[in-house]
Amino acid sequence: MKNSVLQYENVFIADTATHVGKNELEGPLKDYFDMYDEDIYFGQKTFEKAESELVRRSLNLLFKKTGKKPEDISLLLGGDLLNQCVATSFGVAGTQIPFLGLYGACSTIIEASIVACSFINGGFVDNAAVVSSSHFCTAERQYRFPLEYGSQKTPTSQNTVTGCGTYLLQNTPTPYRICEAVIGKVVDNGIKDANNMGAAMATAAVDTLLRYFNESNARAENFDIIATGDLGKEGHELSVELLKRCGLDLGDKYTDCGMLIYDLNKQDMHSGASGCACIATVFGGYIFKRMQKKEINNALIIGTGALLNRNSSLQNESIPSVAHLIHVVRD
Amino acid sequence: MKNSVLQYENVFIADTATHVGKNELEGPLKDYFDMYDEDIYFGQKTFEKAESELVRRSLNLLFKKTGKKPEDISLLLGGDLLNQCVATSFGVAGTQIPFLGLYGACSTIIEASIVACSFINGGFVDNAAVVSSSHFCTAERQYRFPLEYGSQKTPTSQNTVTGCGTYLLQNTPTPYRICEAVIGKVVDNGIKDANNMGAAMATAAVDTLLRYFNESNARAENFDIIATGDLGKEGHELSVELLKRCGLDLGDKYTDCGMLIYDLNKQDMHSGASGCACIATVFGGYIFKRMQKKEINNALIIGTGALLNRNSSLQNESIPSVAHLIHVVRD
Questions:
Q1: Residue A223 domain-assigned?
Q2: Residues A143 and A181 in one domain
Q3: pLDDT per residue over A260-294, tens digit each?
Q4: Would the CB atoms of B185 and A125 count as touching at under 8 Å?
Q5: Would the pLDDT of A1 be above 80?
Q6: For residue B118, how many other CB atoms are within 10 A of its CB?
């Protein structure tokens, strides 16, 4: 496959806004998030409405931080894990911004960023906001069991991040530039355990990383951080091993947002974090703010998504996965 | 909102491939579809797998018709109505083509086409395939009731098209060019009846059509056809009335794919057709083939999507909707 690595010249991150819940606030990255709320309902009557409220609050904060009104934004892109992406649809319904709904499971905000880059760099819009959310309680109901069942979780399972991240991308220069991207292929390695999605997504991440390093001149040691979205501890270890077998050692800069957001020694989060909001808040919060402090100048961010649904698991299907990559530099 | 109408110079339709089921074959457009199969399972064990099979068959036919192999395609974009878009994920898993999952409900193939146009015209890829499917039996289970319940349908309800459409877009010239597009806003007009999605989508279609005609120099009489996706008879009549109140009379060239695919006098299809495959097969089959015959030279195609899910209906929520527009000319 030629042209795997897309090149962008004039796409910049104006700013980000992140909103998290209680568990994320108890983790090591708490100081990097913009907003939090300990009420798991966020003032709403249902978990689904709570997730839409997260989207609304995050977008409003993004508008405030960037000094923009909704009518200043040319394009809005996003999606979430709920059936038919309703958290986003209801969350953005009042904005009156042209909207493209995307579904890349937990990779959605990176997918949205890549699409936004192509619209901006192609000269079709001047700016675009991307947004993606997840909520522990809606995801449990959606993919596994309603919370009321009190199900036990397996050691390989991951905890869905309750939160939302949103970024404003634009053609007006800032120090933060998205310079490259790789669009993932749907990879199906036969993993069928919905409680081990990290393993399913690991090969997708490996596929995308190999394509990037094989087809670009990049060297792993030049990056300050190489972070996948939500492989978790289990999936991360698998990906390290698989990459090494393919001759690629990413070293100790290689990590996973799902391992960063919680303290896996103190918080009972099994293999780590997952969900659209995992990479959305860890990149938008932790990594982007460290770029602002000049602690990170060169970042490779790989959104990872498990493209299953509840029925496909019950029907004993495998878990197709995808991983989309962006390369962000501080100029 | 400025820049509502996106302009494309070098995006061409190489060819289309369409696959339908039994009901569609009994309708007036039967001669315009490429493939059909009367087996509602398409040789698979479940309806969900049947829908993925439709995706596979359609893509394979597209590759065959265009003389391409999967490795010749730079980008694949698509989605469907199933939870977490699994019909598409499983359907494309074997292709090894970089994939962007989209969710715009029944507007998905038009949304995918617009995103593809921006990638192609922006110079990021040379070509892109778009695909979208729906299946009557999966959609009933997903949005309303499993077929086994034998539920009665209301007169305003629509019948989900069983089928799949796929198009290859490219920067190599053909006579069929996508020259303009409008990305829809999420419109919520308070309609709550999941059996009257045409009404919910009508205002989204009206919003997009008004933006197009207000911001371009286009005149309705210059088009050979102006077709919305799946408003059905009920939604179409509403949109005509709403447009007239806003001073826009689109005349008798204005129609709806949901009214074209079935014979509403003979087939018991209530308000008409719906589903991702409705506009995907009617544009890719009927309209595109009439363009090939030079019977249609100037077409305005408006994909319409109702962004609800089953829970949002049960929770008495309204139905946010979206409508994406493309302008296709035969040069």
A1: yes
A2: no
A3: 999 999 999 999 999 999 999 999 999 999 999 99
A4: no
A5: no
A6: 28
Q: Are residues B209 and B135 in the same domain?
A: no
> Any bridge partners for residue B163, and if so which?
B20, B134
A156 and A14 assigned to the same domain: yes
Strand ranges, E, within A144-189? 159-160, 163-170, 176-182
Indicate yes or no: CB of A115 within 8 angstroms of CB of B97: no
Chosen domain end from A110, A142, A170: A170
Lowest mean pLDDT among A2-11, A37-46, B241-250: A2-11
> Is residue A103 domain-resident?
yes
Positive or negative torsion for Cα A55, A60, A65, A70: positive
Specify whether the CB–CB gap between A314 and A99 falls below 8 A.
Answer: no
User: CA separation (Å) from B253 to A227, B59, B301?
Assistant: 52, 31, 12
With 0.90 as the threshold, say if the pTM is over it.
yes
Query: Do B84 and A308 count as a contact with CB atoms less than 8 A apart?
Result: yes
How many CA atoms does the CB half-sphere of B92 hold within 13 Å? 33
φ, ψ of residue A283 in degrees (nearest 5): -70, -50
The DSSP letter of residue B73 is -
Tracing tokens 């999941």 back to the chain, one arrives at B194
Residues of chain B with pLDDT > 70: what percent?
A: 99
Q: Any idea which residue has 């997504």 for tokens? A: A201
Confirm whether A79 is domain-assigned.
yes
Mutation site for B-interface testing, chosen from A45, A51, A80, A99 by largest number of B Cβ within 10 Å: A99
Are B26 and B153 contained in the same domain?
yes
Residue type, A181: A
Residues A265 and A189 in one domain: yes
Kindly tell me the sign of the dihedral angle through the C-alpha atoms of B278, B128, B79, A282.
negative
Measured between beta carbons, the chain B residues lying within 8 angstroms of A75 are 183
Tell me the pLDDT band of A109, cut-offs 50, 70 and 90: very high
The span from the CA of A196 to the CA of B86, in Å, is: 18
Cβ distance B92 to A186 less than 8 Å, yes or no, reads yes
A41, amino acid identity: Y
Residue A144 pLDDT? 85
Q: What is the pLDDT of residue A142?
A: 86
Tokens of B241: 């009335």
Q: How many CB atoms are located within 10 Å of the residue B70 CB?
A: 16
Q: CA–CA separation, A97 vs A86, rounded Å?
A: 17
Q: Of A46, A55, A44, nearest to A78 (Cα)? A: A55
Residue B256's nearest CA partner among B268, B274, B269 is B274
| Contact in structure between A46 and A68 (CB atoms under 8 Å) | no
Nearest to B89 among A6, A307, A311 (CB): A307
- Give the C-alpha separation, A289 to B294, whole Å: 57
The count of other CB atoms within 10 Å of the CB of residue A26 is 14
Expressed as residue numbers, the domain containing B135 is 5-170
Size of interface A-B (CB pairs under 8 A): 176
Q: Which of B151, B170, B189 is the last residue of a domain?
A: B170
Closest CB to B100 among A4, A115, A124: A115
In a domain, A2, yes or no: no
Q: B181 near B293, Cβ under 8 Å?
A: no
CA distances from A110 to A75, A100, A314, A322, B123 (A): 15, 14, 28, 11, 20
**Do B257 and B227 contact (CB within 8 A), yes or no?**
yes
Give ipTM to 2 decimals. Answer: 0.97
Number of domains in chain B: 2
What does the alpha-carbon distance between residue A193 and residue A313 come to, in Å, rounded to a whole number?
8
Q: Domain of A317: which CATH number?
A: 3.40.47.40
- Residue B173 to chain A, least CA–CA distance (Å): 19
